[in-house]
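SEQUENCE-TO-STRUCTURE ENTRY
===========================
What this section holds: a protein sequence and its matching fold, both as plain text.
Question of interest: how does this chain fold, as expressed in backbone structure tokens?
***
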Amino acid sequence: MAPRLDATFSALSDPTRRAIMARLARGEATVSELAAPFEISRPAVSKHLNVLDRAGLISRRRAGREVRCRLETKPLVVADQWLGRYRGFWTRQLDQLAHHFQGGEADR
């Protein structure tokens, strides 16, 4: 699981790839559609797509002359499960901080 999780977080570390993922969350898109909002070359967009594909975050299929991409959610589910282990910790930390500030306000 660790290598796949590493690939997921590494792929998501780039803002261009996160923007591509956000676009694919709305539905399947061609490579041209995904490249349109960016001021980078199409080969650069293809490199970003390759990273997302290797991480299992997208799938691609050829439809005639077009390559269509779609979001794959399984790696995101795995990442969410991993992060979920730490939600309780952060919730407790934030609750303690809120309690500290509420107590500090009562002392004034």
Q: What stands out?
A: Residues 2-106 form a domain with the Arc Repressor Mutant, subunit A fold (CATH 1.10.10.10).
